[in-house]
């Protein structure tokens, strides 16, 4: 596929792939592209203006809300709300979902968006990369009626699109609509995203594992056994340990180089830390579209039936053979 195609050109070209979409999904991706540029501008100058530091509020997770968190949340909600395609939005930073009917009195819009507007925001103060994660579904309740929680609590396999923005050494937007994964790099000089990583694929195997080993003593036995396997002097091991503490950055590196990201449950957090709906499901959809794998240790992330908006899940994601091996240790320790 020709590189240096712009994201706009790519969306138009791919529009033909959506038999039933009347261009609405393309409009939605374009809205996310615009919001990503605005957030990128703010993130890149965060060190220069007094926008760093907690806003004094805390979010539903009880985490201090960094001002950039609040700004990113507002930008994405505003940009998505202004287009007549979204009927509802759920965000890590919002306790409940938001019904969008400013221009849609008759509830004709058919997409819902779930978003982590600025994941890894605790890294902002130390100038480590952060990211935005988004997940898009068609509503399942009848058009013409107000959006309901059921529209958000869909299994991840129902996603029509998912993606992330990584605000790193360069800013990239990586997304899928179920036809593979493509990465676009922002040229900040002209504010244009260019196709830089067409058809991204996880290497089937890898030698990088990403986990917060400081929690080792709290991990389930199967995870402890897998980490020891990664560290053993055998075959092509020991593997390399790389953990940035920013999901999108660890995921992105592992997708390019091969690797596995692990966020297990622990005696400190019974269901792990990551949220199913706006972190694990979108990353799992991208992983599977890139021939990778995403598991809760025993089963497919995308098959989990959610029962609440901010629920958490253990999360193991990356090169298929590495996730397979992790699952082997989890099952073995449960026998
Ligand atoms: P810990 C950031 O807060 C995040 O949600 C992910 O981006 C990251 O991988 C993880 O949590 C880091 O968590 O407990 O290792 O600091």
Beta-strand percent range: 15-25%
Please write the string of helix (H) and strand (E) elements.
Answer: HHEEHEEEEEEEEEHEHEHEEH
Bound molecules: 6-O-phosphono-alpha-D-fructofuranose
CATH topology of the largest domain: Fructose-1,6-Bisphosphatase, Chain A, domain 1
**Rg on CA atoms, Å:** 19 Å
Alpha-carbon distance between the two ends: 48 Å
Shape: globular
The CATH homologous superfamily name of the largest domain equals Fructose-1,6-Bisphosphatase, subunit A, domain 1
Q: How many DSSP-defined strands? A: 15
Low-confidence parts lasting 5 or more residues at pLDDT below 50? none
Spatial order of strands in the largest sheet: 4-3-5-6-7-8-9-10
Judging by the overall fold, what is the CATH architecture of the largest domain?
A: 2-Layer Sandwich
Cofactor: Mg(2+)
Binding site for Mg(2+) 1: 92, 116, 118
Family: Belongs to the FBPase class 1 family.
Keywords: Carbohydrate metabolism, Cytoplasm, Hydrolase, Magnesium, Metal-binding
Description of the molecule:
This protein has 335 residues and is α+β, with helices and mostly antiparallel strands. It folds into 2 domains: 7-197, Fructose-1,6-Bisphosphatase, Chain A, domain 1 (2-Layer Sandwich); 208-334, D-Maltodextrin-Binding Protein, domain 2, CATH 3.40.190. The chain has helices at 7-15, 24-44, 67-81, 221-231, 247-257, 276-289, 320-334, and strands at 54-58, 64-66, 86-91, 98-99, 111-119, 130-138, 161-167, 171-176, 181-187, 192-197, 208-210, 240-241, 260-263, 293-295, 315-318. An 8-stranded mixed sheet has the order 4-3-5-6-7-8-9-10, sandwiched between helices. Strand 9 (181-187) and strand 10 form a beta hairpin. The longest helix is centred in the N-terminal third of the chain and has 21 residues, at 24-44. The radius of gyration is 19 Å and the shape is globular. The chain starts with 6 loop residues before the first helix and ends with a helix. The model has no long low-confidence stretch (mean pLDDT 92). The structure holds 6-O-phosphono-alpha-D-fructofuranose. Residues 119-120, 122, 212, 245-247, 250, 273-274 line the site of 6-O-phosphono-alpha-D-fructofuranose.
